[in-house]
Amino acid sequence: MILTYDGTFSGLLSVVFEVYRLKITVSKIVPEDEWQSNFFDQATYVETDSAWADRVRKGIEKKASKKIANTLYQCFLSEQADISMLLFNFIQKLFDSPSDISDNYGDDTVLRIHQIKKKIGREVHRMHAFVRFQRTKDDIYYAVIEPDFNVLPLLPKHFLDRYPAQKWLLYDSQRRYGVYYDLHKTTFITFEDDERLQYRQLNESVLDQSEPEYQILWKSYFDSVNIPERRNMKLHLQHVPKRYWKYLSEKRQQF
Questions:
Q1: Where does a domain end: 80, 99, 123?
Q2: Which of 101, 143, 170, 217 has its CA 20 to 30 A from that of 161?
Q3: How many CB atoms lie within 10 A of CB 190?
Q4: Per-residue CA distances from 166 to 76, 139, 215 (Å)
């Protein structure tokens, strides 16, 4: 059977529950909006059920650990073309095995899960390091990102710990949604018209009057600590890959 779902992680876990409930064999699992029907293949849509998803997640935690359950969620955010089936295969192997297989790197499925998790972790770390906020006239600190993976759901805790006393908006311009902190809670948001939020550098008309001065000050500091005689561009690019320069105030003139 071919099964489709709503594209959420809870939806995928609901598919897993349905497969075991009905004792069926699946050949493909894809998000509904990615499925292209044809004359020969028919797909069945599985509704998301939070209770089903919760039972599957608890089953993963019991058979392996909470860390592995979180790893599967992070891998889901990678947006790999075959991620739905890869995660299903991993969960199926985990449930069907008499012991925990989550550290069996000799299994191709397990190995790929850990490889994707490592890539996600690197991208999250780089977002922590390279995001630069701009202060608007509304006293909101705004930053735009274009990560390789859909890591925005993994970022709020870091910025909550770092900026608990200021409002901020972190916006993924590629996936066109963001997370907003209003001093009380974080909320995932979208905009009907986000054209202005597509730009990494906001127009000065919406910036706080002191923001351009701060950016100039930061650029001056960067220039002052940059010693030309000790410059090692190869090492620098290893730590700060060029595709991330677009986020950095001190690099924008070079990007």
A1: 123
A2: 217
A3: 10
A4: 31, 8, 18
Q: Is the pLDDT of residue 178 over 50?
A: yes
Burial of 240 (0-12, 13-18, 19+ CB in 10 A): middle
CB 52 within 8 A of CB 18: yes
Q: Which residues pair with 3 in a beta bridge?
A: 29, 44
3-state SS of 19-55 is HHHHCCCCCEEEEHHHCCCCCCCCEEECCCCHHHHHH
Q: How far apart, in whole angstroms, are the C-alpha atoms of residue 51 and residue 78?
A: 25
Residue 50 structural domain: 2-123
CA–CA separation, 158 and 153 (whole Å): 11
The model's confidence at residue 138, banded by pLDDT at 50, 70 and 90, is: confident
* Residues in a beta bridge with 2: 28, 43
Which of 95, 123, 151 is where one domain is finished? 123
pLDDT for res 42 = 85
pLDDT digits (tens, 9 = 90+) for 8-30: 999 999 999 999 999 999 999 99
Q: Are 159 and 113 in contact (CB under 8 A)?
A: no
Let me know whether 99 and 135 are in one domain: no
